[in-house]
Amino acid sequence: MTTHEAPQRSITPRASLAATESLRHSRISGVGGYRPERVVMNAELVDAIDSSDEWIRERSGIISRRRAAPDESVIDMSEIAARQAIEEAGLTPDQIGLVIVATVTHPFQTPGAAPEVASRLGLTAPAFDISAACAGYCHGVAVASDLVRTGTAEHALVVGVEKLSDFTDPTDRSSAFIFGDGAGAAVISPSETPGIGPTVWGSDGTMRDAITQRESWLTLRDGSTDWPAIGMQGPTVFRWAVWSMAKVAQQALDAAGITADQLDAFIPHQANMRIIDAMIKALHLPADIPVARDIAETANTSAASIPLATERMLREGEAPHGGLALQIGFGAGLVYAAQVVVLP
Ligand code: UT7
Q: Would you please indicate which residues are annotated as catalytic (active-site) residues?
């Protein structure tokens, strides 16, 4: 070897790795949801933000939301939704080989919520959190689906959970009425046929200020800020959601090889009823296709909103088991993810 030659970096390994199983298909095999008991009507919130029931209904479509009890944690809510999803999938908790929890309101920087949720289910399976705000559940479905497809996991649990009441400033006009608490869960399992279409996802970190915890934990430590609640530039997020997310939804349909009129349900993140209506229009969604409108009674539960809406539509017979649903999550980051799924 002359001094001008690049050093040899590769050798022939002494053994070759065992071949992984070839790709298989995945599907959602069960969903579950948990809504805290306490119902909070708009009237309870309006005085602190100089608003009215009428304004909130008209501008957001929200009539009420659920609030978790003070001692009810994201772990408690996750466990209930998870157990229901596992039962709906016809499985027992010991068959779950991966736990993913999507949340932005677990009040510990570390450890994540997922290992604790796994432990509640009696599991020592791999478990980690996803911080992708209102798109967290769709990110979780994407990751879990690929891990099931490659054989890394057999059955995976994806939970979307939020206790946003702990991170909301009750005097903030742009967010105090928007958020709710709850948990939704899905089990992702191997499938004979394709059950989860390709995910269309992305981010725009230049828009980080559009929805954000107002201050970092460090300013709280230094005593220079109050509790750093989540703040939102409502109209900025609204415009982004209406203009950009309908295109992403269409791309998810294209990637799945179907058209809007072949859907059996449209289940967008429950951010604002007017955003949902604008998306329906942009997608030219036929009027007879059921659309999730859980926001009216559940408000915006961030990572929990899509699985909660899915669970409700199936339970109330609004969406058919086995039907095709387009789901799209978008929120703080800004981040987004969308995919077409076969409903369990
Ligand atoms: O989940 C993550 C993603 N999040 C979202 O997608 C949320 C997107 N944004 C929204 O849903 C909407 O922007 C809100 C519902 C938050 C706000 O509705 P908006 O129609 O965008 O209201 P705005 O901020 O443009 O304000 C319109 C008017 C203003 O009054 P003037 O200037 O027209 O006289 C505001 O001062 O409404 C007033 N206003 C309110 N009035 C009563 C703003 N907030 C309130 C309020 N109650 N809470």
A: 134, 269, 300
